[in-house]
C-alpha cells in the first residue's frame, strides 16, 4: 500500500501560441536528460542539489514540461520533497529548470515557474527553495531572506540560496541542512517488480 496521500497528477495544460505546458510523461525522460545536458552542461550532476534528488522521484504532480507545436520537449522543471533540517518542516526544492537554448527568452522558463508555483500552492506545500540566480528568480518572489539558517548538503553560494513561502511564516525558525524526503526510486521499482 502506498502511504502517501493520493493527489492528481493531471495538470491543466496552459497554451500559448508557441508552447504547451503539461505533466512530464515516462517517454519524456530521455529528451529531458538530453535537454538538461544541452542547457546546463556536463557538470550539472555535481551540484549539491543533486544530492537531494539522486535516487528519488520528484514530488507528486510536480514534474512539468513545455512542448512545442511538434510535441518536442523544450522546457523542464521538477520539484522535490525535502525536510528543513533533521526534524524540520517539509518543503520543496525546485530544479533543474531549463529551456531549450534555441528558444531561450521566449517566456517558457517563466511560464514553467508560474505553473510550478501555482501547482505547488494548490497541492498545499508550504515553501519552495532553490539555488539559482537571484536576478532571475526574484521576479517570482524568491529571496534569500529566510534561508540564512538553512544549508544545502554540500557547497553552495549563500546569496543564490533562495526561497518562496507559499504559506506565510512557513520558514520562520527554519534551521539546519536540507534533507531528501521524497519517494525513493528503488522502493517503487521493487513494488512494481
Ligand atoms: C534560466 C532559463 C530557465 C530561463 O528560461 P527562459 O525561457 O529563457 O526565460 P524567460 O523567457 O522566462 O525570461 C527571460 C528573461 O529572464 C532573463 N534571464 C534568463 N536567465 C537569466 C539568469 N540566469 N539571470 C538573470 N536573468 C536571466 C532574461 O534576460 C530575460 O529578461 P527580460 O525579461 O528582462 O528580457 C533558461 O535561460 C535556461 O534554461 N538557462 C540554462 C539553464 C539554467 O541556467 N537554469 C537555471 C539555473 S539558475
TrEMBL record:
It comes from Tianweitania sediminis. This is N-acetyltransferase. Residues 24-167 form the N-acetyltransferase domain. One of its GO terms (molecular function) is acyltransferase activity, transferring groups other than amino-acyl groups. The lineage of its organism: Bacteria, Pseudomonadati, Pseudomonadota, Alphaproteobacteria, Hyphomicrobiales. InterPro entries: Acyl_CoA_acyltransferase, GNAT_dom. CDD domains: NAT_SF. Signal peptide: none annotated.
Amino acid at each position: 500500500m502506498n502511504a502517501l496521500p493520493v493527489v492528481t497528477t493531471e495538470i491543466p495544460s496552459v497554451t500559448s501560441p508557441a508552447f504547451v505546458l503539461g505533466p512530464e510523461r515516462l517517454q519524456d525522460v530521455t529528451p529531458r536528460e538530453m535537454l538538461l545536458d544541452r542547457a546546463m552542461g556536463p557538470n550539472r550532476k555535481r551540484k549539491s542539489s543533486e544530492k537531494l534528488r539522486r535516487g528519488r522521484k520528484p514530488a507528486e504532480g510536480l514534474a512539468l514540461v513545455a512542448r512545442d507545436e511538434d510535441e518536442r520537449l523544450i522546457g523542464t522543471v521538477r520539484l522535490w520533497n525535502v525536510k528543513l533540517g533533521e526534524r524540520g518542516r517539509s518543503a520543496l526544492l525546485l530544479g533543474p529548470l531549463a529551456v531549450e537554448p534555441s528558444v531561450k527568452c521566449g517566456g517558457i522558463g517563466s511560464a514553467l515557474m508560474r505553473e510550478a508555483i501555482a501547482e505547488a500552492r494548490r497541492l498545499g506545500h508550504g515553501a519552495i527553495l532553490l539555488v539559482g540566480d537571484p536576478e532571475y528568480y526574484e521576479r517570482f518572489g524568491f529571496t534569500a531572506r529566510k534561508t540564512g539558517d538553512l544549508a544545502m548538503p554540500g557547497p553552495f553560494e549563500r546569496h543564490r540560496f533562495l526561497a518562496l513561502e507559499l504559506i506565510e511564516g512557513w520558514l520562520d525558525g527554519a534551521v539546519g541542512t536540507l534533507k531528501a524526503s521524497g519517494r525513493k526510486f528503488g522502493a517503487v521499482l521493487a513494488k512494481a517488480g
